[in-house]
Amino acid sequence: MMMRRVNKSNLFQQLKDYLEENKLDLFQESLQSLHIQDQVDWFQKLDDKRLRQKVYSVLTPEQLADILQGLEIDEQKNVMDEMDRNKWIATLNEMASDDVADYLTELSEQDVNAALGEMDQVAAKRVKKIMEYQEETAGALMATEYIAIKTTDTVQSVMSRLRDEAPEAETIYYIYVTDTEGSLVGVVSLRDLITNEPEVNIEDVMSTRVVSVKVNQDQEEVARLIQKYDFLAVPVITDDNKLVGIITVDDILDVIEEEATEDFGEISAVRGATGTDVTAWDAAKKRAPWIIMLMFLGLITAEVIGQFEETLEAIVILAAFIPLIMDSAGNTGTQSLAVMVRNLAIGTFDKRNVWRVLRREFFTGVMIGLGSAVTLAILIIIFYDQNLALAGVVGTSILLTLSISTLTGSIIPLIIDKFKIDPAVASGPFITTLNDIMGLLIYFTIATSMIHYLM
């Protein structure tokens, strides 16, 4: 209880002091009294390599595995490089198979083969099984440390088995039931086991309505399924219904963060350059292609303005409203893009109702455009000598531009999704530039047709 009252920063310093003073028993006892995530936080702040080496020698492989599983891949690689080889292998043996697979995929093929060759063969076999599956699928995401039971087992025998095997399992809140062939036939919750008599057979307790995912199913689909059913875990099966692993909600939270970061990178044209550890050179390499492409698209914008040079020379005041038209078009299109990409990403968009959605977005743009047009018209009349013609040109242009921009921001992601491409690649800068061009065409076309009223 006293440990909980100590300020965390003071406790972290105390742990460091214990290492400095070689009070290693006190250090280990104090560290293990912390929540595992607090242990990870403390270790991440320990920037003295000499002290980290002491941590590696004092902690057991099981304790190190708990900490390493909370680190990012790059951090894991740095730690593993500092460790004694034997301790490193022993720690890999204690880590969850899916975490080891994630780590090993970042190494060279030679290093992977060497590590798997030195690992405990049972643990290595589990890791190899996961690494066989394509990235971002259920198979690559699953853990193979699960407890499977038979229909003929009794509640008592299962509870006894849980006491022995629970520490090694990824989760015990759901226990999956298989037949003699290893096919998934049911599921039992920990609550079911606790609330039933010891002599009852699992067949009489289990639920046969099991929601599962296939090994090759996309991780985003798995995330949506767990979110839909509020599961803590979901079983992973092969095409012939053989149980091969489970995916827990903590892994799904990582997937959701990863996919959200990826979509954010796509929609803002900075994919792969959002991390704080990315160097300026790498960030420039990833972002430059989009900027260069958009620069060439910008030349089209300049060409549109050039085509209406005579109109601009005759009515100079029109130039004052070019930024307003372009910014409004780009902003409205980006809003629709974000709405559509999000709905496509989380699976809430029903493609059978595509026309209804597009109609809604169009009329949303019409209403926004109408409000903006009226507001601008009033301001122009007040500040530009009651120039009704100019108010009409700018107001009509903003109405049409915003109406079409919302439609563009909705249609382009749908077209891209139709070709099985991530709709987030319809990035904000691309939609903005496209709508800029259309906005200028609308604006100058209307202005040119009404030039006699403007003069």
In short:
This protein has helices at 2-5, 8-20, 24-32, 36-45, 49-58, 61-68, 73-82, 85-94, 97-104, 109-118, 121-131, 138-141, 155-165, 190-195, 202-205, 219-229, 249-267, 280-307, 309-314, 322-346, 354-383, 388-418, 428-449, 451-454; strands at 148-150, 174-178, 184-189, 213-214, 233-237, 243-248. With 455 residues, the chain is mainly α. The strands form two sheets. The protein has a three-stranded mixed sheet with strand order 1-2-3. Strands 4-5-6 form a three-stranded mixed sheet.
Secondary-structure-derived class? mainly alpha
- What's the domain count? 3
Question: Which fold name is given in CATH as the topology of the largest domain?
Answer: Tetracycline Repressor, domain 2
Largest sheet: 3 strands, mixed
Question: Could you tell me the radius of gyration in angstroms?
Answer: 30 Å
Query: What does the average pLDDT come to?
Result: 86
Shape: elongated
| Poorly predicted ranges | 1-5
* β-sheet strand percentage: 5-15%
**How widely separated are the two ends?**
83 Å
User: How would you spell out the order of helices and strands?
Assistant: HHHHHHHHHHHHEHEEHHEHEEHHHHHHHH
The number of helices is: 24
DSSP, total strands: 6
The CATH class of the largest domain is identified as: Mainly Alpha
Strand order of the largest sheet: 1-2-3
CATH architecture of the largest domain: Orthogonal Bundle
CATH superfamily of the largest domain: SLC41 divalent cation transporters, integral membrane domain
Q: What is the share of helical residues? A: 55-70%
